[in-house]
Amino acid sequence: MPMANKTRWWVATVAVSTALTACSSSTSDFRVAHPGKVDLSTKAGTALTITPDRMLAATGGLTPVAFGKPAHGTIAYGANGSMTYTPDAGFTGTDELSVTVSRAVKTYAENQLPLVTMGGVTIKASAHGSGIAAVPGVSDEIYGLTDRGPNVVGRSPNERVFPVPDFQPHIAKLKLADGVATVERTIPLRGPDGSPLVGLVDRQANTGESAVDLNGTPLPTSDYGVDPEGLVATLDGNFWVSDEYGPYLIHFDANGKELERLSPFDGTLPNELSLRSPNRGMEGLTISPDGTMLAGIMQSALQTPGLQGSAKSVPLARIVTVNVVDPQIVHEYLYPLANPQETDVSVSEITALSATTFLVVERDSKPAPNASKKIYAVDIAGATDVGPRSTVPGASYQADRGGLLVNGVPIETTVGAGSDADAVAKLRAAGITVAAKTLKLDLEALLRTLSAHGDFYGHDKIEGLLTPDGGKTLVIANDSDFGLAGLASATPPMRLQPKVLPNGTQDNGEILVVDTTALPAKTESVTVAIKVR
Fold it and tell me: Which residues form the signal peptide (predicted)?
């Protein structure tokens, strides 16, 4: 399923020339780009907005990753993937813009209108990267998922401020073309009775969070509360969504109506999963290529009884597999996290390559360029099942005490905070083998080779991942948090603070496509002419 960049070829009045130099992240490579032609022109003293499709036309379809300074003006990053050129006062004539491009990556920026503006701060609607899934049978479309809606940390660590309390989580169908991810359809999520689902805290789940609006007024819990994070689109047109509150696995029909729900509170999912830390539930979801097995992954370790300190420091996460035909067949496997006590990493997505092999995103929450975003190839074929069907010698399974017990102690409590190497050794001594993992892509290292200061795809939360061809092409999405970073003022009525990327723009939903066969990534230089009249 190639992610083709369907570049429009615009009729030109100004030529776009190619510089005869190129730079490479590995060796000297003087490949020549063949740009198209496009009329980029503006009036004297008037700024020119260059949208992604026009920039791609100017670069011959090659993805811009960095920009030089024009000789007679300035260039700045704009909204929705655009660039803004401003000519110097009094200048007329033809200016030249040096653009660094790469064949190894493509980007598609969401271009939606804002959800709402509050206190002068835009709340973005382009937030469909909490989970992504391929649209079956279509090569240039994907489904994207929102989470529970706009929310930020409040006046205490356990308070969450919901500026739009009635936000209804939804699935969006996105068309990827010409550098833009265009929403073609939205599918609001609804309960089994047709009532809208909302992002307020689920009444049954104990998250430890208190929800308020911008006035500080407490918000109630809801029987329709859901925090979607993982997405699967099935061949019959339906969806599965994983949630952070329960965590739940929820089956929706093609129009977003709930069909069934697997829950740790009624025994349809292992009860120990309800011990997830607040906002650290089932962060990713995928389905085996034959469509018979769902695989979800918890964001961090469980807060099992007796655990000293925070589960976020325990170097484990759980992969949970569920048989689609018989959901009672559930298995759990341990995924080793890379020293979260020091690195603050957690899991944000999983995508299946086979019934036993996956790609997993492991990341921190820092923006580029000094961040950690890595994609691992993971194999559970040799891993030990630590779920209800576990057969570990000498261990016992007790759902109400934290699941599988080793010498009477839950797994996370046994391991405790520490390094992943120590955790693996402790588990091996107990007869438990964790999933095998190898580095597939150091995403942040790749992005730094393309843009040293983090101007190119500098998002902090990488949460969506799919591959159409067994891992050669990686389609990656970010969770923009609706463009919000937190509170600018905690005095009611509270004021919001926008989340700003390293390139100076407010965070926005954006899809990144990486061709791993073109790595290490090479860059080339293209000169774009801009006529100022």
Answer: 1-24
In what helix (H) or strand (E) does residue 58 lie, and over which residues does it extend?
helix 52-58
How far apart are alpha carbons 102 and 67 in whole angstroms?
A: 12
Query: pTM of the prediction?
Result: 0.92
Q: Please, are residues 334 and 314 in contact by the beta-carbon 8 Å criterion?
A: no
Identify the H or E element spanning 250: strand 249-252
- Residue 91 φ/ψ, nearest 5 degrees: -85, 135
Q: For 130-174, how does the pLDDT look when each residue is reduced to its tens digit (9 = 90+)?
A: 999 999 999 999 999 999 999 999 999 999 999 999 999 999 999
User: How do the domains of the chain map onto residue ranges?
Assistant: 17-105+520-532, 106-518
- Amino acid in position 377: A
For residue 346, which phi and psi values (nearest 5 degrees)? -150, 175
Are 399 and 386 spatial neighbours (Cβ–Cβ below 8 Å)?
no
CB atoms within 10 A of CB 379: 16
- The alpha carbon of residue 484 and the mean position of all alpha carbons in its chain are separated, in whole angstroms, by 15
pLDDT tens string 435-485: 999 999 999 999 999 999 999 999 999 999 999 999 999 999 999 999 999
In order of 121, 474, 497, the CA distances from 118 in angstroms are 5, 36, 10
CA distance 250 to 135: 19
Fold topology of 17-105+520-532: Immunoglobulin-like (2.60.40)
CATH class held by domain 106-518: mainly beta
Mean pLDDT of 310-333: 98
Q: C-alpha dihedral over 269, 270, 274, 275, to 10 degrees?
A: -160
Of 242, 113, 123, 128, the residue nearest 176 (C-alpha): 128
